[in-house]
Design goal:
The structure is a homodimer of 139-residue chains. The radius of gyration of chain A is 15 Å and the shape is globular. Chain A has three helices and seven strands. Chain A has helices at residues 5-14, 58-65, 100-109; strands at residues 18-23, 29-34, 37-39, 42-48, 68-74, 84-95, 124-137. By secondary structure, chain A is α+β, with helices and mostly antiparallel strands.
Chain lengths: 139, 139
């Protein structure tokens, strides 16, 4: 079964973590958990608020060469009748400076950023444009 | 920081869900949550115990053409000092009939399979051979 559209919107707004897959050289997939804010149909994810350490993160490196990505949202439950997942296929791009509205949305969603203020407008951010959203729930 | 090896082994044995990424045509990634059993250095994941519906699952289709895959294990925590993830890069293959030891391990790990007995030796299973394991924890 698909998830109702209203539930998908709630999950996009509240779920704190998603799993980002990108593709590197020789068609090798790469995955990493990300935090994100969903804003006007786009997903925004901070990459790093600190100055570049010199080596580019794999997700950034991959997206520069191949923008296709996948975002998975899921919450495991021992009661398998409560399982659900949402997969977003789309294109990712790397933006710097970071989008100011996205920074505000991230700070509002994650109270942790009040103690870890690494988000600045000079931060690098991923912007994900969904092209297809697929959902599944057990019932 | 890396996770201690002993903790990684415990997570491999007990964590009920992982996120599988494979790569399809034109370098597009695909993700899906999976259940799995870790046995003698390999990850086994049941694909479907029911007879084929005619269309092959994307993960199976992708792995037949490109065996490179990634498996992500993660458990979100609002306390970001407790965050961790493990990523396994490796190769996946599709096996049928299913490995009997893997079926036993899955039934032992997931009591749900006592009520949902879809695992049979004629089932299709994914076998994942890790080539690289990367872990991260906040502290």
């Amino acid at each position: 079964m698909k998830l109702p559209e209203s539930r998908i919107r709630t999950i996009f707004a509240r779920r704190p973590v998603a799993y980002l897959a990108t593709v590197g050289a020789e068609g090798r997939p790469h995955q990493v958990p990300i935090v994100f804010a969903y804003l006007n149909g786009l997903f925004w994810s901070p990459v790093d608020g600190k100055p570049k350490s010199g080596t580019e993160l794999t997700r950034v490196h991959n997206l520069r060469a191949n923008p296709w990505m996948s975002l998975l949202l899921e919450e495991y439950d021992e009661d398998w009748s409560r399982l659900w997942w949402i997969r977003i296929d789309g294109e990712g791009s790397v933006t710097q400076p970071a989008n100011a509205d996205a920074i505000s949305a991230l700070e509002e969603k994650y109270p942790q950023y009040q103690e870890i203020p690494v988000l600045t407008e000079s931060s690098t951010m991923l912007c994900i444009t969904p092209t297809k959203t697929v959902s599944w729930c057990a019932r």
